[in-house]
């Protein structure tokens, strides 16, 4: 795509970038590697000795490597449920814009994949990752469902129904409410609640909590169940209560998780925007506006680069860029210039000639490995969101 300088982006150029990406992921059959899949290797699993900090070191070391050594470690390309959900979301928006029957066929295939990949043995539909992973807070075995995955997939399913009238998608989305309300743990605080990240932990992670809450409030619009609205508003209140004076949020409330990063801030704000769009939470509009101001003023350079943390630039991560495009596209004309700067920079500096998007630009090198969920699915989600909002004016 040519450098368009200070001119507005041409939707045709965005479409060209998007369809190069689409052809790449379809060629890969939506399979790929993940930055956090190190423990899929039998060799690394054995060497980790099931110890937390060895696992963390292996995962973090692997995701920083500029070269992909996974084939030598018996790590294979996989189908990631969250990635499949994001691709479904993108195709639903693409169908809304272009109205091509082939996108409906792809959506049907992706819906079937989500049905096959869902985690079993829970009260409702839910999804985890296709690999074991270790965070600072807990260890999660593959297929253990997470609130983040299930909520993103839920939002995608709702929009698959809204934009392409996929009845099956809405049915799958409605079922997720039972997983959230019955299987997750809750932290209760002064009449507010915070949903746990998974059924096997008790952490208070704001983007997970707000993602679950925002899905419940959207599902309330389809079911009319008061318990969904009550839980959603109580969950929203928890994270609003913990917003910092400058408008930001820590990733989580535990001492080891008090960092402020770009894409999780964007997730939080997108979730609150869902409440406002549904006609709820107007009492928190000032909190939302403070959050938007913090986000827009602290994470982006003049040329459109997105900082990872609020106080330092590197690594420049495709997640940070993509979520910013998603959110600011939704915010409309007042953020059009910022949206276009970020989108332009993302395409010019993060997209490979073969169509896929890079993972990260670090201070001294670039990680060009075409991670399917973290990079391709998010870029697809972002570019389709941009085009959808351009088409709707």
Strands, helices and their partners?
Blueprint: H1 11-27, H2 42-48, H3 52-64, H4 81-98, H5 101-117, E1 133-134, E2 139-140, H6 147-164, H7 167-183, E3 186-189, E4 192-195, H8 206-223, H9 226-241, H10 262-277, H11 285-298, E5 316-317, H12 318-331, H13 336-350, E6 360-361, E7 366-367, H14 372-391
Helix pairs in contact: 1-14, 2-3, 4-5, 4-6, 4-14, 6-7, 6-8, 7-8, 8-9, 8-10, 10-11, 10-12, 12-13, 12-14
N-end to C-end Cα span? 23 Å
| Range of strand content | under 5%
Q: Percent range for helical residues?
A: 55-70%
Overall form: globular
Structural class: mainly alpha
Poorly predicted regions are 1-7
Kindly state the number of beta strands.
7
Pattern of helices and strands: HHHHHEEHHEEHHHHEHHEEH
Strand order of the largest sheet: 5-6-7
Largest sheet: 3 strands, antiparallel
Mean pLDDT: 95
Radius of gyration (CA) equals 20 Å
Number of helices: 14
Notes on the protein architecture:
The protein is mostly helical and 393 residues long. It has 14 helices and seven strands. The strands form three sheets. The chain has a three-stranded antiparallel β-sheet with strand order 5-6-7. Strands 1-2 form a two-stranded antiparallel ribbon. It has a two-stranded antiparallel sheet with strand order 3-4.
């Amino acid at each position: 795509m040519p450098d368009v300088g200070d001119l507005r982006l041409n939707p045709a150029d965005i479409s060209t970038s998007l369809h190069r990406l689409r052809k790449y992921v379809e060629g890969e059959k939506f399979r790929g590697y993940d930055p956090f899949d190190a423990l899929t290797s039998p060799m690394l699993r054995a060497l980790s000795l099931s110890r937390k900090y060895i696992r963390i070191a292996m995962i973090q070391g692997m995701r920083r490597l500029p070269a992909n050594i996974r084939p030598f470690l018996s790590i294979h390309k996989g189908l990631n449920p969250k990635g499949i959900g994001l691709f479904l979301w993108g195709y639903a928006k693409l169908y809304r814009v272009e109205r091509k029957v082939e996108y409906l066929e792809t959506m049907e295939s992706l819906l079937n994949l989500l049905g096959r990949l869902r985690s079993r043995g829970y009260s409702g539909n839910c999804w985890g990752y296709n690999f074991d992973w270790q965070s600072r807070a807990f260890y999660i075995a593959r297929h253990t469902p997470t609130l983040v995955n299930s909520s993103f997939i839920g939002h995608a399913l709702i929009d698959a129904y809204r934009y392409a009238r996929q009845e099956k998608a809405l049915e799958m989305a409605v079922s997720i409410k039972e997983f959230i309300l019955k299987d997750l743990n809750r932290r209760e605080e002064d009449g507010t609640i915070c949903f746990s990240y998974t059924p096997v932990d008790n952490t208070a992670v704001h983007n997970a909590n707000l993602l679950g809450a925002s899905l419940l409030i959207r599902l309330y619009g389809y079911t009319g169940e008061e318990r969904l609205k009550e839980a959603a508003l109580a969950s929203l209140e928890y994270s609003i209560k913990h917003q910092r004076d400058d408008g930001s949020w820590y990733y989580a409330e535990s001492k080891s998780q008090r960092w402020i990063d770009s894409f999780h801030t964007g997730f939080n704000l997108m979730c609150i925007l869902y409440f406002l769009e549904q006609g709820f939470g107007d009492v928190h509009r000032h909190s939302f506006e403070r959050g938007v101001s913090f986000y827009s003023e602290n994470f982006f350079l003049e040329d459109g680069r997105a900082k990872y943390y609020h106080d330092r630039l590197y690594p420049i991560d495709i997640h940070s860029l993509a979520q910013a495009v998603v959110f600011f596209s939704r915010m409309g004309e007042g953020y059009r210039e910022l949206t276009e700067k970020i989108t332009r920079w993302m395409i010019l500096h993060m997209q490979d000639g073969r169509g896929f998007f890079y993972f990260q630009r670090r201070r001294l090198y670039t990680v060009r490995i075409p991670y399917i969920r973290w990079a391709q699915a998010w870029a697809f989600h972002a570019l389709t969101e941009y085009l959808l909002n351009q088409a709707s004016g």
